[in-house]
Amino acid sequence: xxxxxxxxxxxxxxxxxxxxxxxxxxxxxxxxxxxxxxxxxxxxxxxxxxxxxxxxxxxxxxxxxxxxxxxxxxxxxxxxxxxxxxxxxxxxxxxxxxxxxxxxxxxxxxxxxxxxxxxxxxxxxxxxxxxxxxxxxxxxxxxxxxxxxxxxxxxxxxxxxxxxxxxxxxxxxxxxxxxxxxxxxxxxxxxxxxxxxxxxxxxxxxxxxxxxxxxxxxxxxxxxxxxxx
Length: 229
Prior knowledge:
- By secondary structure, the chain is of the alpha/beta class.
- It has one domain (about 5-210): Undecaprenyl pyrophosphate synthetase (3-Layer(aba) Sandwich).
- Helix content is about 45%, strand content about 10%.
- It contains eight helices and five strands, in the order ααβαβαβααββαα.
- The protein has a three-stranded parallel beta sheet with strand order 1-3-2, with helices on both faces. A two-stranded parallel ribbon has the order 4-5.
- Helix 4 (about 95-105) links the parallel strand 2 and strand 3 (about 115-120).
- The model has no long low-confidence stretch (mean pLDDT about 95).
């Protein structure tokens, strides 16, 4: 969800106004995703590199997340939406992490859209943590080194149990992944709209889906129909 600060600056507003508008877009896209029948939507909210930002901005972001959880969990329950967070707990404030765990517990049996928030997340960090987890199991004798395969490596990632993404959208026109779901997006379609996140509304989501539907996804195979035509 890139471009909150630049969106605000272009409008002569403080960066915090962009973050607040960005939260409103999250709510809109969650609702739209649920109505459109999307199974999983993941938002990259805060990276492990974002701790380098000014302290006041970090405090604002944490307060916005706290407010979001306070106001939206009941709505997620009513809408049959499951809430998950991926990323490391430390150094997220304890009070906030407790609310996250409570929200996950309250929505764990919901069967509609799965709404995933990547918080204090970095994909390289995730892969290192997965390797450490597997290595620990090997050292304890619970698994063998030969048990590790491409297929089951995903079970050691933060996203275990979730499908790999079909489509990755990065707003603001930046043409890079920025350490997000590097293992999981191996075969995802990438889409880089120039809109800043606060301007990425339901129509923009539908446009992204339409672009995705127009892509030819071969996964290493040839298109037999085209070859025979």
